[in-house]
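ok here's NADPH-dependent oxidoreductase:
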Amino acid sequence: MKLLGISGTILGAKTSVLVKAILEEVKQRHPDVEIDMLDLRDYQIEFCDGRRMDDYNEDTRSAIAKVTQADFYVIGSPIFNSSIPAPLKNLIDLIPPDVFRHKVMGFTANGGTYQHYLMIENQLKPIAGYLRAFVAPSYVYAHTTHFSPENEIQNEEIILRIRELADELVHMQYGLGRKLVKV
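and the structure:
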C-alpha cells in the first residue's frame, strides 16, 4: 500500500514541510505503509496541452507515473489569491481522471490569512469529488505564524492535526480495501 505526498507548488518550503510531516507520521505510526513524495519544486513539468503522454519530457512522465502508481494521497497546496497554484492544477490536468477513482485523498494547505482554509472546502474537495476520489474528512491548514523563521512547524494544534490526518488516511485506506474493483 503506497501513500504519495504531493507538494503542489514550485515556490516556498512550507507546503513541502506540511506534506513531509504527514508522511513522517504515517511512516512512524504505520510502518507497513510505503510512502513516497512528489515535490513539484524538483520537477520541470510541462503544461498539459493534450499531446500524447510519450511526447512530454521525462520529468512530466515521471510525475505522472508516481501519481498513477500510488494507492492513496496527501496533497499539499499553498493558497495564492484564494486558490490553488497553477502547478498543482496542471498536474491534476495531466493525470487521467480514472487514476484517482476510488482512491483516498487527504489535504493540507498553508496561507497567510485565517480564512484561506476555505479553499480546501471550496476547491480541493470539489475537484476530488469530480475525480470520484474518497476524501478524508479532516485536513490540516497552517497559517504562516504556525511556522518558525526556519519553516519548522511550531504550533501544537497543527502537530496534533497532522497526526490525526495521518491516522485517518491510513484508516480510510484500510477500511475501503487495498484494491477496489472498478465498475
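+1. Strands lie at 2-7, 34-39, 72-78, 104-111, 134-143.
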